[in-house]
TrEMBL record:
The keyword Oxidoreductase applies. This is NAD(P)-binding domain-containing protein. The lineage of its organism: Bacteria, Bacillati, Actinomycetota, Actinomycetes, Pseudonocardiales. Keywords: Oxidoreductase. Belongs to the HIBADH-related family. The keyword Oxidoreductase applies.
Length: 300
């Protein structure tokens, strides 16, 4: 038995549904940890590179779900989940579905009810790191819902990052996710707007970052933003690891969560509007930092 074969024998088979930048990272990490990994995506060609590393590509969602006891889904949102798994018929019955896309607590509760009606063991979750950090032991993944499902499948979940269980209310993972992301977006927006203010006097972003990041920014975002400062000066924002469209979706979930939870909504709505403006200006396929293009000019 080769080393890879013996690792595979220890690890549970797993299916990943959804191969955007995040789903690709999840499947790659699981395969890398020796799980027999099966994938399905609406656009099948996105699995080509994974297939070359030994990942199996299923032709249908039903075939993908039937290949493993656990299916990890990472789609755009909950609506997409119903669309995709609606075609799976009875294949999900008796299996475990772990939902890692973003959404609101209300949507998570509805999904847990939908799963229960179909005899599916359901765990809701959220990913707190970008795709390149998936698979690192310190990368936080939040989970809520069935404690039994979490405990039983913890080793599989640990192959993607550090699994944290928040409680039996299935809405808690997305609630924490939207709260933490709100903090992240507000911090990045503050930094980008301040960089545009300094830029109005001809100060390059690289120069401003040298002072601003050391003076204020927290340890997690600081190094990332310092590395990206030359990107701001160039005005190039590649979207290969996550697009502004994807971030607008997350900002929409934050604004809707604030509404659902009965807290003030102006702050998240404003951030959503700024991202929507950047998309209307043609930056939808670029990464989130492209909102800098909005901050550099007066509102029209
Ligand atoms: N990227 C990040 O940095 C990041 C970080 C943390 C969490 N997340 C979360 O992870 C989830 C996935 O994000 P992502 O960046 O991978 O990309 P995304 O653009 O949010 O989602 C892309 C995935 O959804 C599928 N999809 C969209 N509409 C569909 C439909 N109508 N029918 C079937 N499939 C559909 C896409 O299929 P096709 O390939 O066929 O288009 C693709 O598999 C999101 O909920 C996001 O909030 C992302």
């Amino acid at each position: 038995m080769t080393n890879e074969q013996s690792a595979s024998a220890r690890q549970a088979p797993v299916t990943v549904v959804g191969l955007g930048p995040m789903g690709l990272a999840l499947a790659g990490a699981l395969r890398g940890r020796g799980h027999r990994t099966t994938v399905w995506n609406r656009t099948p060609g996105k699995a080509d590179r994974l297939v070359a590393t030994g990942v199996r590509r299923a032709a249908t969602v039903a075939e993908a779900v039937s290949a493993s006891p656990v299916t990890i889904m990472c789609l755009k949102d909950y609506e997409t989940m119903y669309e995709v798994f609606g075609s799976a018929g009875d294949a999900l019955r008796g299996r475990v579905l772990v939902n890692l896309n973003s959404g609101t607590p209300k949507e998570a509760h509805a999904a847990a009810g939908w799963a229960a009606e179909r005899g599916v063991s359901y765990l809701d979750g959220a990913i707190m790191v970008p795709p390149p950090m998936v698979g690192h032991p310190g990368s936080v993944f939040l989970y809520s819902g069935s404690r039994e499902v979490f405990d039983e499948h913890r080793p599989t979940l640990a192959s993607m990052g550090d699994p944290r269980y928040l409680g039996s209310d299935p809405g808690l993972a997305v609630l924490y996710n939207t709260a933490l992301l709100e903090m992240m977006y507000a911090t990045i927006n503050g930094y980008l707007h301040a960089t545009a203010m300094a830029g109005s006097a001809g100060v390059p972003a690289v120069e401003f970052a040298e002072l601003a990041i050391g003076w204020f920014l927290p340890a997690v975002l600081g190094p990332m933003l310092a590395e990206e400062a030359p990107v701001l000066d160039k005005g190039e924002y590649p979207g290969d690891l996550g697009t502004l469209e994807m971030n607008l979706n997350a900002l929409d979930h934050i604004a809707r969560t604030a509404q659902e939870q009965g807290v003030q909504t102006d702050q998240p709505r404003l951030m959503r509007e700024i991202a929507a403006r950047a998309i209307a200006d043609g930056h939808g396929g670029k990464n989130y930092l492209a909102v800098f293009e909005v901050f550099k000019h007066q509102a029209r």
